[in-house]
Write a structure and sequence with these properties.
alpha/beta, single chain, Rossmann fold, nine-stranded mixed β-sheet, 6 helices
Length: 223
């Protein structure tokens, strides 16, 4: 039986509320743990863990981040299924590959972007292009051989990876954010004049495009 935990890495739910996004997508019951309050699951109580995005930068790590890194290492050793989105994807890379595999973006991706699924994979399926919402200023760089990179974009070479032979996936995109939720998020970012403001404004005024990858993500992670 699947026992699912979600580690909420958000700072301010009035701007970004990943639990609301995942709740819309998931049929499974789950238990929420607030990372910034140093609340983390007991690994032996769960079979699956989702690591959410965050307004924080993975390059500036507070104590709770180091605690979460240690939890991820233990979960991987115990064979727990892990899925990280955006910040969670970057945290998986830091924990399981090393901190030098994350860096500041040369070209931040904010808005609805096109990604290339460039390998046939059980997680996202056949090779193709797809659209999804993205919002990140940091990124994962080229990964070591024990990681299979299966998706990329023009500005980010590691949009999706899997730790070979283990149920551990990272996605730089936000498949869990539907169009309405993403537009609300962009409006809050612009309203609060968050930088890079011009990119949030441009995304808010752009045409939304969503290939609904979340349906495949949820099916293959907890289906």
């Amino acid at each position: 039986m699947i026992k699912l935990a979600i580690i909420d890495n958000a700072i301010d739910h009035s701007i970004y509320n990943p639990i609301r996004h995942w709740k819309i997508c998931l049929e499974n019951d789950f238990v929420v743990f607030k990372a910034t309050s140093c609340q983390f699951p007991d690994i032996q109580d769960f079979t699956h863990i989702i690591l959410t995005g965050s307004e924080a930068s993975i390059l500036h790590r507070e104590k709770w981040v180091y605690d979460e890194i240690e939890l991820v290492k233990e979960a991987a050793e115990r064979g727990v299924a892990l899925l990280g989105s955006c910040y969670g994807h970057q945290l998986l890379a830091v924990a399981l590959a090393g901190p030098h595999y994350v860096q500041k973006c040369a070209n931040p991706e904010i808005g609805w972007i096109s990604i290339s699924i460039n390998r046939v994979d059980d997680f996202l399926g056949d090779k193709r292009s797809a659209y999804c919402f993205s919002s990140h200023l940091d990124e994962v760089t080229e990964m070591p051989d024990e990681f299979l990179v299966f998706a990329s974009s023009d500005s980010c070479q590691v949009q999706g990876f899997r730790l070979r032979n283990q149920p551990i996936w990272g996605l730089q995109i936000h498949p869990e954010m539907n169009i309405n939720e993403a537009q609300w998020y962009l409006e809050k970012r612009v309203e609060n004049k968050h930088e890079p403001l011009h990119l949030f404004q441009a995304a808010m005024n752009s045409q939304p495009r969503d290939s609904r990858l979340i349906l495949q993500v949820v099916k293959n992670f907890v289906g």
